[in-house]
Description:
Layout: E1 6-7, E2 10-11, E3 14-19, H1 29-39, E4 43-46, H2 53-67, E5 72-76, H3 79-85, E6 89-92, H4 99-106, E7 111-116, H5 119-127, E8 132-135, H6 153-161, E9 166-169, H7 177-182, E10 187-190, H8 192-195, H9 200-216
Parallel strand pairs: 3-4, 3-10, 4-5, 5-6, 6-7, 7-8, 8-9, 9-10
Antiparallel strand pairs: 1-2
Amino acid sequence: xxxxxxxxxxxxxxxxxxxxxxxxxxxxxxxxxxxxxxxxxxxxxxxxxxxxxxxxxxxxxxxxxxxxxxxxxxxxxxxxxxxxxxxxxxxxxxxxxxxxxxxxxxxxxxxxxxxxxxxxxxxxxxxxxxxxxxxxxxxxxxxxxxxxxxxxxxxxxxxxxxxxxxxxxxxxxxxxxxxxxxxxxxxxxxxxxxxxxxxxxxxxxxxxxxxxxxxxxxxxxxxxxx
Length: 226
């Protein structure tokens, strides 16, 4: 199926940096975000499931200053915080608030994604109006220990039955980006591959270059629509 060309104002393909204080090498999330955006990240997902709302809002406000006008900022499964900091969108957890309810709270101009580790959840997200699906873990990942990888077949199965953009997460590296794009992914999400790098900007640049190259050779049946 033909993909849309954008998620909100963001053109495909997506390079999403998943930012979390627990995974950033030196704990400086703001610096990590700034370096990732400078390296080519087009979306930043702030994911802090154990952080109190007030503290998260303060962090998100500072992160927002690093992404504004440069990359989309989405907050993982915290609509209250997203509203408070005027984030671009929300990444809804697989078992989070229904997409339609989130849309009612956030309004039509906010972008909404849904996490999915199976085909049925992805199709439900499509039917409810999510603008992308975060699918995975595709490969084994140190940040998701114990979770069985779905493999790229999950991406292929989703895009076969839906035109929703699929962002692949879980063990994504420069070496396997071509495989996920060939399977139909519209982008990638990376946590430790950027957050744990000695040079986060350079690591992001390498991912961006590999993504751009793979995107230019994506299959004809997953080309973006005009």
